[in-house]
Amino acid sequence: MASPYLHLLAAQARSQLSYRASFALDLFGNVVTLGADLLAVLILFRVTPLLGGFTIAEELLIFALAATAFALADLAVGNIERIRLYVRIGLLDALLVRPLGVLPQLLVVDFGLRRAGRVVYAAVLLAGALVYAQVDWTPGRVALAIVAPISGAVLFSAIFVAGATVAFWWIESGELANALTYGGRDFTAYPVNVYSGWFRRVFAFGAGFAFVAYYPALVLLGRPDPLGLPTGLGWASPAVAGVAAAVAAFVWRTGVRQYRSTGS
Amino acid sequence: MSVIEAVGLRKQFTVRVKSGRLRRTRRTVAAVDGVDLTVERGEMLGYIGPNGAGKSTTLKMLTGVLMPSGGSVRVCGYAPVPERTRLARRIGVVFGQRSQLWWDLPLQESFTLLRHIYRVPPADHAARLRECRSLLDLDEFLDTPVRQLSLGQRMRGELTAALLHGPEVLFLDEPTIGLDVVSKQAVRGFLAAQGSRGDTTLVLTTHDLADIERLARRLVVIDHGRVVHDGTLDSLHARYGSRRLVVVDLAEPVPDPAIELPGVTLAAASPDGLRLTYALDGSGVTAGELVARLATTAALRDLAVVEPSIEEVVTRLYAEG
Q1: Which of the following CATH numbers is that of domain B243-320: 3.40.50, 3.30.70, 3.90.640, 1.10.10?
Q2: B67/A257 Cβ within 8 A
Q3: Which architecture characterizes domain B4-238 according to CATH?
Q4: Arithmetic mean of pLDDT, A170-199
Q5: Angstrom distance (rounded) from CA B312 to CA B243
Q6: Residues in contact with A115: Cβ distance below 8 Å, sequence separation at least 6, in sequence order
Q7: B127 touching A, CB under 8 A?
Q8: How high is the ipTM of this complex?
């Protein structure tokens, strides 16, 4: 018998497809959003030939890696930000009385299939950027081109989950979580060396955003890091994502325990 | 082994109370304050009490949703929170206002999904579903999306959903709330049939007194987080002095309607003195003796004996608390 989660996922897809027009519009809207972001990059390069020392081909690769990672994370766990609503309407109680894990149930019962459009679009963009940047392919680089977006997606997912969980018992934290997730998406879309000071330290290394697109892109392009750190850092993406996932799991468990001891 | 064993079950919540412009003080409130409860297999238990008495909180602790602050609790032999998923296969839960169904899908699909979630063998699932379909008349709306069902239809779906994995204990939080009379009857009849088979234990909270009379052979009354009564409906009547009323209509008024008999008090008299209501507390004379005595002093036109209503008892119980 297939996993119950797969059945739940399929059911969720059928639910969303029961509103066909709305689904199509959402799919379309998601693609337009990403198109607007891409337009911003293209306009930027109308006024400058280099951004932080990177050409438009190199920047597009960073942009596409970041967009793919974020789109994957948003597809997988983006709906978790609605957890406060779930608590209020009692969905969390309903999930707690079923013989399945709470987090996977939450993710599949409101799986945003409509966000799939953005993943497809970002993946196409990534393929294009890899060709355009004329990557000198080695087996290692091929592997990294696949692993990096997935690691980035795990990192973004961890931040989504941890941020939403904090909102569990601290309502005002919603904006903070958004600063990290959507702020992180915009941060990762550009070379890290265009930012400076404590802001760069916090976002690039504190939150690990430099490992989503910047360092993997350096490895793929065979470029040294303008910041002087070893280029091989791109290979650390999976490890950074693993640490972030562990932290998020801990925060999530604490949040659920808190919920069960205090009620809604 | 008892199906439910709770000893000294407690749940405290910390609330922050505004005390001044910016200051907030923390205050601990005991929602459930030392509940002892033992329920045997096949019992039908009504768990009642005023709003905020701690009914839902108790139910959430028994089903593994909330972690108790103190005391011990085992349901079907499991500690509810640490062994949540194992317990979940053995219990069914119906929260009156929280759905277990998939809003946008036909009702039937929810049942199929639950079969996968609980990993019920297809044959068992089909047999239980067939039974629920005929007892609850589900056939006419099995293919309707849940969002289009009436409240009564949805509740019948919820009941089926909670029973498809063959739970040993069925927890029902206000199962008839908001239903129309016909749906209420259908739900009660179905639950009574489930309970009478003796292998499913029923625990229900309700404000509906008809639910209690129909479904609860044992009543546990909770108030301010404590159990104030645990026993049958009859023992509740006896304890809270439910009074049987004897209403007599007279042909003409009598000068002194009060009667000196043990256990009898004049409860009401109509302005014209033609209708007298006597209350019997059950400790003294019977209704028959009272009527015999009345007949010696007045000409009776009609009489009626009104049984004590649970409504009256519970109202009094709530008022005391």
Answers
A1: 3.30.70
A2: yes
A3: 3-Layer(aba) Sandwich (3.40)
A4: 83
A5: 9
A6: A30, A71, A74, A75, A78
A7: no
A8: 0.78
